[in-house]
Amino acid sequence: MRELTADMVKEFARSKGADLVGIASIDRFEGAPPQMDPKQIFPRARSVIVIAVRIPRGCYRGIHEGTFWASYMVYGYK
What we know:
Elements (H helix, E strand, L loop, with lengths): L5 H10 L4 E6 L21 E6 L4 H9 L13
Antiparallel strand pairs: 1-2
């Protein structure tokens, strides 16, 4: 079986539409409140995958204008 590498994970995420992908050590969460600690869900985790997707400016314009607050919730649907 082929080993899963960081580059493979990043390439896959980008192919699915991620704009930024990063992988960090689980140690970054040391001392975090339990509800924010990934080890509460995955006790054997060693790394955390972080994915960012750009939100088009028009999707949140209504929030700033006070006209339509819910548009940000549907930005990811294609």
